[in-house]
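Narrative of accomplishments. A recurring question from our advisory board has been how the design workflow behaves on a single, concrete structure rather than in aggregate. To address it, we present the structure tokens for one chain from the evaluation set, followed by the sequence designed for it. No filtering or post-editing was applied between the two.
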């Protein structure tokens, strides 16, 4: 029996198994990106091209420094913790607190999505408010999420919630409302922001509130798939009796993944040229 051939076959089989794990991960990530896994779970993807607003309909998102002279002032916030994900909305009309609402999202959603969903829900509530005809039709939206405001201004960002916000803004503008956004610092004593923060945290931990948003971010799915592939790779690695010296330096696959090794001619020669110290090193 050719023992050298058997040794080589086992080595290649082990290497092939690792490659297969990475190929499966790549394929799964591709499926998420293309939306092929949508039949399994809802994925928070960009809306389709046919649902994009016409460039002529895109309008700039006005931003101010947070003046309190608006007829309607909307405060929104989101929270993600160990117990869940929640969003909060507080609405003032003529400086009087008129509404407070809290919403719960799927636990795999991120904090930014909660903040953006809060804006969607707040804009939906405008039509239910009683506003005197002689009052200016002005709305101020106050959020501590800088990324949300910047993303809304970005015409190339077609994330589902951003398009939902834009659609509602267009409808309100058609109804002669003037809407402005303002960034406010979180936890700085602003009453509206403090109230929404508490509402969001309450919603996140209240299991009796049903989910109103369950689209899972692609980044979350990517992380979960990577974790799954890493664990599978670790299991295969522990079953293999090769690379004993390497395992002393990197007992866990994650240790090796998290460390960058610069590829240079010396490294290439060490690994590729035979015979080389690599054959001893990997025993």
């Amino acid at each position: 029996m050719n023992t050298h051939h058997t040794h080589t076959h086992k080595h290649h089989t082990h290497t092939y198994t690792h490659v297969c794990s990475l190929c499966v991960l790549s394929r799964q990530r591709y499926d998420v990106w293309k939306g092929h896994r949508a039949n399994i779970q809802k994925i928070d993807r960009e809306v389709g091209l046919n649902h994009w607003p016409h460039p002529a309909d895109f309008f700039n998102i006005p931003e101010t420094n947070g003046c309190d002279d608006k007829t309607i002032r909307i405060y929104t916030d989101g929270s993600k913790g160990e117990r869940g994900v929640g969003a909060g909305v507080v609405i003032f009309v003529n400086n009087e607190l008129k509404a407070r609402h809290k919403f719960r999202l799927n636990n795999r959603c991120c904090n930014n999505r909660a903040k953006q969903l809060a804006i969607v829900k707040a804009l939906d509530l405008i039509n239910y408010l009683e506003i005197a005809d002689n009052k200016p039709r002005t709305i101020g939206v106050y959020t501590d999420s800088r990324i949300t405001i910047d993303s809304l201004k970005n015409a190339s960002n077609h994330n589902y919630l951003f398009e939902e916000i834009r659609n509602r803004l267009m409808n309100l503008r058609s109804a002669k409302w003037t809407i402005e956004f303002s960034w406010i610092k979180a936890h700085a004593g602003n009453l509206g922001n403090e109230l929404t923060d508490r509402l969001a945290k309450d919603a996140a931990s209240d299991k009796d509130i049903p989910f109103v948003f369950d689209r899972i971010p692609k980044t979350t799915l990517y992380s979960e798939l990577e974790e799954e592939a890493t664990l599978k790779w670790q299991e295969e690695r522990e079953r293999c009796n090769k690379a004993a010296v390497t395992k002393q330096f990197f007992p866990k696959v994650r240790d090796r993944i998290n460390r960058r090794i610069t590829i240079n001619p010396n490294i290439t020669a060490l690994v590729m040229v035979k015979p080389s110290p690599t054959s001893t090193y990997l025993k």
